């Protein structure tokens, strides 16, 4: 029986391996992690991540050909194929701080693989890594190999959180990069035969190592760029009276452009976009391409602009101060159908409002109070380290309360900020909410999900990103 081991039981390692186990009953899959609590959760009824459909997949294979364990060395020793899906945070100190990828966790995983291996192995980069990481990993493995042969493959993951299981069942493509040597090509074929058990062959793309590594960074940069492009347009729409939804629909019907990823919002978040673009920027700078670096940097600058623009709108509309006013925050996750808060725009918006001394009452159907408090008190980029290396008891932000109901969050509030597009926020009883709020009552829709006209009829003053402004808002320009 072929044995696969995946180092890193996170948002990528857990779901991808569960789907491989489901689709390949003849392969034994072990997912290992240094975090004891994470592995315990994978072995319990309360999985460590929320992802539609994941529970069913895990339940049908766990204990049969899918195992979660902290015995990293044993499973690496036994495996024929070792996936590495560990954190690759942005460096916070030293050379490349604030941009370059920190490969500490990757390097320690590679050294461990070299240490414990007694048979030839295929080592697969699943984490998103800088171009040429495979070369560094190869060096670590071969210099410590004691005669064992390793083949390095790059197999970046393209799943999107919230639709991870659907994406893994029906990926647009699977990408496998390897060395163009007979051994490299053989390793590519071996991994290809795993995916071929459920993915049509023509959708399994094979390339050289560097193309596969760079394609992942490029894909994320292109996706984030679409969001920043439409968000940049949203500011112009507000200034001119155009409606960004009409503009993006008209633009997206051009088949060369396409309709996806053109929703204006308070900004993109998630663990990957910013981190991967910063990494891309750094690689461009290191390769003497400052113009290319500047071009991609702008995607992040517009995202930051969009978040601060939103905060300015809130504060300016409410007579230029939110000091001691209760503001309800509906949604904290970076998008709907996930409990993931990494780099969520809600962090920056909340911090902006706290900077103006607001009292925040936050509700998200999938995010815990502990997580929200952590996120609001953590230093930039600290989130992307294994959980047991993060501060254990973060300081509580006093002006923040976390509640388990949208009606509780909005009671006596002066304003509501909708920061995640959860479906349930579309169908709240806004009449009831209005009656229980301070007047004038404001709704700032950072995701364009509510029917602004209906809310205006109830009596709300409504701000929708990129839509023609209420007379009230026109009179209160949000200048930083
Ligand atoms: P995560 O933080 O959820 O999981 C990483 C896991 O690796 C943690 O549980 C950590 O404890 C473990 N770990 C770190 N060092 C280890 C070691 N030496 N031995 C054993 N376990 C170790 O991260 P996530 O989101 O799964 O991301 C992993 C990689 O995949 C990153 O490079 C990310 O950029 C990339 N990626 C993430 C996507 C996403 O949607 N989250 C999508 C595609 C790629």
UniProtKB/TrEMBL annotation:
Root EC class: oxidoreductase
Sequence ranges assigned to domain UDP-glucose/GDP-mannose dehydrogenase C-terminal in this UniProt record = 328-452
Record's keyword annotation contains NAD: yes
UniProt entry tagged with the keyword NAD = yes
Q: Output a single Gene Ontology CC term carried by this record.
A: nucleus
GO molecular function terms noted in the UniProt entry: NAD binding; UDP-glucose 6-dehydrogenase activity
| Catalytic reaction equation(s) | UDP-alpha-D-glucose + 2 NAD(+) + H2O = UDP-alpha-D-glucuronate + 2 NADH + 3 H(+)
Q: According to the UniProt entry, what is the EC number of this protein?
A: 1.1.1.22
- Please name the InterPro entries in this protein's record: 6-PGluconate_DH-like_C_sf (IPR008927), NAD(P)-bd_dom_sf (IPR036291), UDP-Glc/GDP-Man (IPR017476), UDP-Glc/GDP-Man_DH_C (IPR014027), UDP-Glc/GDP-Man_DH_C_sf (IPR036220), UDP-Glc/GDP-Man_DH_dimer (IPR014026), UDP-Glc/GDP-Man_DH_N (IPR001732), UDPglc_DH_euk (IPR028356)
Where are the catalytic residues?
Answer: 272
* Pathway involvement of the protein, from the record: Nucleotide-sugar biosynthesis; UDP-alpha-D-glucuronate biosynthesis; UDP-alpha-D-glucuronate from UDP-alpha-D-glucose: step 1/1
Which SUPFAM superfamilies is this protein grouped with? 6-phosphogluconate dehydrogenase C-terminal domain-like, NAD(P)-binding Rossmann-fold domains, UDP-glucose/GDP-mannose dehydrogenase C-terminal domain
Gene Ontology biological process terms in this record = glycosaminoglycan biosynthetic process; UDP-glucuronate biosynthetic process
Going by the UniProt record, its keywords in alphabetical order are: NAD, Oxidoreductase
The UniProt record gives the binding positions of NAD(+) as: 8-13, 33, 38, 86-90, 127-128, 161, 272-275, 342
Q: Which NCBIfam families match?
A: NDP-sugDHase (TIGR03026)
Which family is annotated?
A: Belongs to the UDP-glucose/GDP-mannose dehydrogenase family.
Q: What is this protein called?
A: UDP-glucose 6-dehydrogenase
Lineage, opening ranks: Eukaryota, Viridiplantae, Streptophyta, Embryophyta, Tracheophyta
């Amino acid at each position: 029986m072929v044995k696969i081991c995946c180092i890193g039981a996170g948002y990528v390692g857990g779901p991808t391996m569960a789907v491989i186990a489901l689709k390949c009953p003849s392969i034994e899959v072990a997912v290992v992690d240094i975090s004891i609590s994470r592995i315990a959760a994978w072995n319990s009824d309360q999985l460590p991540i929320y992802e539609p459909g994941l529970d069913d997949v895990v339940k049908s294979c766990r204990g049969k050909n899918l195992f979660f364990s902290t015995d990293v060395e044993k499973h690496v020793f036994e495996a024929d194929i070792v996936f590495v899906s560990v954190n690759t945070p942005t460096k916070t100190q030293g050379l490349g701080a604030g941009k370059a990828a920190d490969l500490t966790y990757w390097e320690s995983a590679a050294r461990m693989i070299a240490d414990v291996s007694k048979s030839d192995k295929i080592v697969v980069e699943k984490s998103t890594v800088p171009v040429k990481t495979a070369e560094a990993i190869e060096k670590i493995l071969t210099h410590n190999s004691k005669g064992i042969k390793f083949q390095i493959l790059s197999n970046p993951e393209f799943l999107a959180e919230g639709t991870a299981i659907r994406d893994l069942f029906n990926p647009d493509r699977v990408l496998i990069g390897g060395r163009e040597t007979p051994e490299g090509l053989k390793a590519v074929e071996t991994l290809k035969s795993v995916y071929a058990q459920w993915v049509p062959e023509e959708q399994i793309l094979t390339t050289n190592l560097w193309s596969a590594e760079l394609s992942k960074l490029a894909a994320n940069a292109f996706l984030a760029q679409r969001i920043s492009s439409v968000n940049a347009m949203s500011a112009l729409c507000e200034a001119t009276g155009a409606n960004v939804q009409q503009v993006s629909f008209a633009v997206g019907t051009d088949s060369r452009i396409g309709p996806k990823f053109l929703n204006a919002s308070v900004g993109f978040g998630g663990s990957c976009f910013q981190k991967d673009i910063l990494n891309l920027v750094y690689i461009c700078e290191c390769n003497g391409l400052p113009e290319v670096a500047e071009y991609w940097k702008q995607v992040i600058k517009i995202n930051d602009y969009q978040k601060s623009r939103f905060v300015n709108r809130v504060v300016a509309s409410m007579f230029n101060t939110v000091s001691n006013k209760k503001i309800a925050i509906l949604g904290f996750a970076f998008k709907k159908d996930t409990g993931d808060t990494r780099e969520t725009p809600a962090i920056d918006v909340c911090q902006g409002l706290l900077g103006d001394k607001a009292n925040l009452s936050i509700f998200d159907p999938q995010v815990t109070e502990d997580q929200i408090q952590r996120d609001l008190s953590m230093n930039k980029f600290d989130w992307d380290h294994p959980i047991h290396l993060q501060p254990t008891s973060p300081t509580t932000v006093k002006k923040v309360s976390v509640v388990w109901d949208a009606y509780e969050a909005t009671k006596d509030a002066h304003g509501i900020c909708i920061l995640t597009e959860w479906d349930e926020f579309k169908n709240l009883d806004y009449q009831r909410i209005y009656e229980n709020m301070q007047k004038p009552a404001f709704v700032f829709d950072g995701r364009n999900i509510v029917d602004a006209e209906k809310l205006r009829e109830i009596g709300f003053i409504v701000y929708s990103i990129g839509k023609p402004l209420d007379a009230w808002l026109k009179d209160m320009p949000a200048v930083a």
